[in-house]
Amino acid sequence: MKYEKEIKTAFKVSIPVMMGYAVLGFAFGLLLVSFDYPWYLAPIMSLFIYAGALQFVAINFFNAKAGFVDIAIATWFINIRQSFYGLSLLKRFKKTGKLKPYLIFGLTDETYALLTTIKDDEQLKKRWYYFFLTAFNQSYWFVGCTLGAIIGSNIKFNTAGLEFSLTALFVVLCIEQYKNLQNAMPFIVGALASLFSLIFIPSDKMLIVSIVIALILMFTFRRKIEQ
């Protein structure tokens, strides 16, 4: 096989991601069909959106009948962190040629973590190793979402509380961010902005308004937060 070493290495490195993506993807598939959406929407979203947290949020957008502008703005804010990931990988992806668009599309938190924490084998053909690693990770998510949707469509599950899986995901990410920053102010600002929007703003605009308020407060008290 032409790229046997790259494939084997990428698969071995991606095994921890498989454990997480398969389970969380399965939960997404179950949740999607529990809202009476067709099962095939899960694999379509996994192929063309491929954004774990955003796919969970998308279900709420669908239910709230949110407008395209609201969805676009929320999507940008939710995934803006990956723009900074991309900047740090410009040099690494420089010689990936035609594979670069897919590598950019498939860059998730977990893929970025693998690319930046595991030292590359100098004997590997780097661009193909990056490609197979990214493709393996997306395939785990695709299979998990698809199986969850198909099984959920044919076997009735009690999915009460399953929608909390997204909240749990963000709580874990929030805790990890706090451990890295050791600064409670950004989290207090976010909580206050969200609470205000939850009370005074209609539910379909709540997310956008809370993000805007949080940004305004962050810039207003920037010096205090940094100190």
TrEMBL record:
It comes from the Bacteria. It is found in: Cell membrane. Pfam families: AzlC. Its main location: membrane. It is a multi-pass membrane protein. InterPro entries: Brnchd-chn_aa_trnsp_permease. The chain crosses the membrane at residues 13-33, 40-62, 128-151. Keywords: Cell membrane, Membrane, Transmembrane, Transmembrane helix, Transport. The keyword Transmembrane helix applies. This is AzlC family ABC transporter permease. It comes from Arcobacter roscoffensis.
